[in-house]
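User: Predict the complex with adenosine-5'-diphosphate.
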Amino acid sequence: MIEVRDIVKRFGGLVAVDHCSLEVGNGTITGLIGPNGAGKSTLFNTIAGFIKPDGGQILLDGEDVTGLSPHKLFEKGLVRTFQIPHELTRMTVLENLMIVPANQSGENLFNAWLRPGKAKADELAVRRRANEVLEMLQLTHLRHELAGNLSGGQKKLLEIGRTMMTEPRVVLLDEPGAGVNRTLLGKLSEVIQTLNRERGYTFCIIEHDMDLIAQLCDPVICMAQGKVLAQGSMDEIRRNEAVLEAYFGG
Ligand code: ADP
Ligand code: MG
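Assistant: Here is the predicted structure with adenosine-5'-diphosphate placed in the model:
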């Protein structure tokens, strides 16, 4: 589904992503691991259109999407999650979900003023979708809570919820497990699996929690120093010499 071909990204003299090639297969939950500074987040940001690469190509379903804006990629069904921005911590959980589609379609007040009937119908559809998403994430009881009052793990669920508002096909998650307690981690991984199996979402997940990766991801890709070191099942990756060297060597 996503094909990364020979991507290079430099920051000044530093080569953060160094001729990196990999694939995220349709319908998979692909894991991306590697020591700090391996270039994982930079690669994600390049795939999602936030960073322009210095070389190489990104293909989405065979179509060259290199350098497209995040907005264009979102329309094509590719999204990455983000921490809830500061402004949104003072809005409720429900509101955080409801503003996603309007934000993404670049809709403005002028539209609502020109076609009030349509705006009303749109709002109802968005509200219905938001309630579905809350139900799926088991966050319904928190819908009127301010996003800023959620726990770390609940915020992560809401971040995923925001991507679900517009029915994406492929979701990039950068360290969804960071700072999340065990109980919510279980729920998070359940939600990811359900969306994958029942809704056909493809995921690519950067994560340091190897238990979470082992539980969710196949295949797993290991990066180090901007390059792909190894790819395979978690069991294969665990036994790979180059991977062990990257984590524990030198
Ligand atoms: P990872 O997510 O695997 O920990 P990153 O992609 O965040 O790695 O970083 C890869 C390398 O690029 C690191 O050496 C990091 O310091 C550097 N880097 C990342 N973003 C920037 C930036 N915006 N400006 C300069 N250097 C950066
Ligand atoms: Mg990172």
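The two ends are 36 Å apart (CA to CA).
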